[in-house]
Design a protein that fits this description.
Helix content: 55-70%
Shape: globular
Strand order of the largest sheet: 1-2
Strand content: 5-15%
Radius of gyration: 18 Å
Distance between the termini: 60 Å
Largest sheet: 2 strands, antiparallel
Length: 221
């Protein structure tokens, strides 16, 4: 009974953290006066969420064990399968060659090489996935289907939801299904990579490097 209550508390904590994360991320795009850096890219929101995610991680670090994914796990991070999977988003990024040519933009490359991977891997993989793995069973049965590691699926769904939801300047909420589906795939992949390597470091590198290539290749082709 006590164990179930702990799991329920963990899910409630996850939901609360998620909504605070969303507010911190989206608010600067809607309210100009709280922006630290005025730019076409949401530097301010990312700075807020990286700071928030880091603080939350240290506050709940003991709750995350044995799924503490911050740090360098030298015994597992160089395993063959994680390295192959980490290269997949980088290889897929080369398809951006078929996108329309764009002008060179150093700020875009700087942003993509730093902010998204750090923010999202700390928040979604170190914090959210760590909570999920502790709160949910390793395997669940759905009708006659056995699902292994449902935490990875839920983490991917959450990742897809965040990227698929679009809020306009008029505060209209839309959902981009193609973006949501694509980022679900990447969310699941980075979650699997984190679990296998016991660290978010490969995910951060793969995430940021692939993002840079997606923007750089149309600039230089």
């Amino acid at each position: 009974m006590a164990k179930n209550q702990t799991k329920v508390k963990s899910i409630i904590i996850l939901v609360l953290i998620f909504w605070v994360y969303q507010i911190l991320l989206k608010a600067p795009t809607q309210t100009q006066h709280i922006q630290i850096i005025h730019s076409k890219w949401n530097w301010t929101g990312k700075i807020f969420t990286i700071t928030f995610g880091t603080c939350i991680y240290y506050l709940i670090r003991e709750r995350l064990k044995p799924f503490d994914f911050i740090g360098f796990k030298k015994e597992s991070i160089f395993l063959k399968r994680p390295l192959i999977v980490a290269s997949l988003p980088i290889l897929l990024a080369f398809f951006s060659y078929f996108n329309p040519k764009t002008e060179y933009d150093f700020e875009t490359l700087l942003y993509e090489s730093t902010m998204p991977g750090i923010d999202e891997e700390v928040m979604f993989r170190a914090v959210f996935l760590g909570i999920m793995l502790n709160a949910l069973k390793e395997r669940i049965s759905f009708f006659n289907l056995s699902i292994r590691n449902p935490s990875l699926i839920l983490n991917g769904l959450l990742f897809g939801l965040v990227h698929g939801v679009q809020i306009t300047e008029e505060l209209d909420v839309n959902f981009d299904y193609l973006m949501g589906l694509g980022t679900f795939f990447y969310g699941y992949l980075y979650g699997w990579l984190t679990v296998q390597s016991r660290s978010i470091l490969l995910g951060v590198f793969s995430h940021n490097f692939s993002n840079v290539l997606i923007h750089l290749i149309p600039m230089i082709k």
